[in-house]
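Comment thread on ticket #2218

A.B. wrote:
> Attaching the input chain for the structure job we discussed in standup.
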Amino acid sequence: MSSEPNPPESERSSNLENLENRLYSRTPPPLHPPAEFGKDERHIRIAPGWTAEAERKDSAVYGMVARIMPWLKRLFVASILFMLGAGGVALYGFWQGSNMVSSENISLSVLGPVAAPAGEELILDINIGNYNSLLLESVDLIVEYPEGTRQPTDVSASLLRYREALGPLDPSGTLTRRLSLIPFGEEGDAKTIHVTIEYRPKDSNAIFSRKSDYEFVINAAPVTANVTVPKEINSGQVFEVKVEVVSNASSVIKNLIVKAEYPIGFQFSESSPTAAFSKDIWYLGDLKAGAKRTISVKGRIDAVEEEERTFRFSVGTQSPKDEKVMGTVFLSEAPTVTVKRPFVSLDMLVNGERGKTFISKGTGPLRADIVWQNNLPVKIADMEVSVVFEGSIFSRTSVEQGTGFYDSNTSSIVWDKRTQNFGAIAPGQNGSLNFSFSLFPVATDPSLYKNPSMLVHVTVKGKRLDENGAYQEVVSSFTKEIRVATSLALSTDLLHSTGRFIDQGVVPPKAEALTTYTVVWSLSNSSSGVADTKVTAVLPPYVTWLSQVSPASESVTYNPIGGVVTWNTGNLDAGVGFGKAPREVSFQVSFLPSISQIGSTPVIVGEATATADDRFTGILVKSNVRPPLTTASLSLGGGPVTVQ
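C.D. wrote:
> Ran it. Output below, let me know if you need it in another format.
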């Protein structure tokens, strides 16, 4: 014990530290027992938790944590202060929000009818409001119209997009614009107009927008179309479809067209007025208010079994980009007709080929076979079969009628009960008839026989008993078209020093001495235009292509692999080479004979042939095959032609 009653502060601190170290020491000093315990010395065990706690406090981690804890407390306090500050700023912004622009305070409304007739003027009122406390320095109005919308001042002009600068808009101010348009479309069509305003707040470079859509329905078409078709027809029976178009608009409808979509098996015969494009588009032009146009279409449908076939006629305006396309559709009608089996099945085969069209490639006689069958459950009485020739490309004197009667005055053949057992035809009974005829050589006069074709009409008719016991006439018909393919004619020639090029060497050629030749190809085409025309031939390996072509505008190519020379002439009109000059090209080759070829007439150019696509008949046509050109093909006035 210190002799000083109040030791200095440093000593007291030192004593406390010593006491603490002794308290947490792993091997504390032994305690001296009081006198009443005698002289026995005892040790007191320290609990393990105390020693672990002491170790933890002595460790580096504990020291680090002890140093960080005050900073964490400071960070926590700073976070609380930041949250309080942010809340204050948010509260300030809330109370000062009247000085900011919010899109929620910008109003845009479009007022107009929910339905409108096509072809009539439609008026829309657009209202814009600024309910912010700040000025909008610029406001732009943008309107996007649906397809088919027209300008009210010019119905023929499309109206697809409209933009207008409306200027500034004061706080709590409003702007109103009235727009007019003429919508077009099918009755029942839903149309949408997209309206957008773009605005820029005061003292801001940013542009914001607000949108609104206006929807309406076309409740009446500007025209009506009444399509009349028979409810029932027989297969192969010619029938008529009428389309009546009437204007409902108060103004002129410009560039009106009608487009037809025919069902499968429909064979178009004729129409009034004549179709403007192909056989299914009619141009009606401008239709005044209350005016009417009528279209009549005739044709037939072939069907094996009873079926329903649907037509579709659409009425609209012509596209400004393509006169063959309907830009805006006003309405569509889709009538249906029931096609029944023909009373008598009828078909005609030419040279054994079925189908509606037969392509002839020559002038030889054509054999025709008529095949018929009674499809009715009752007898057919007094049946008659007739054939009528239509066209000028067949020879009337060449007709062989078989067992029928041929009348050259009407160009027809008739088979009836006078020459056949046609008095009573039982249900399901069938048979065949045949005849033949020849075509003229149409290539002799392409101007007269351009795109030559003819028709053969076959008709069978008779009488049957109906449900009331009365005789009813039954008729079936069939028409076959015969087209004559064009005739390509190819000529080839071999020249030396008389063609378009200056040739070298001598003729007849000499062994191991070079000689050049000029090859001339000429093409003629008779009765119909052709496309993708080409002439090909092969050069032997001992002949060299010299890349000389005249005229230079002609496309002549050479492939060294295989030695094929190809002349691509493309399109070739009818009549080329018949009454006018043929299509011609020249090219040059060289020949270096070998000693082994002495005494022979080597081939200079192999056999040549021309092919083309006949645009009238739709088939591939070929020319006559020209034989190879040899050294003997060059006329030398009777002199030697072999290699010397």
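A.B. wrote:
> Thanks. Noting for the ticket: The radius of gyration is 51 Å.
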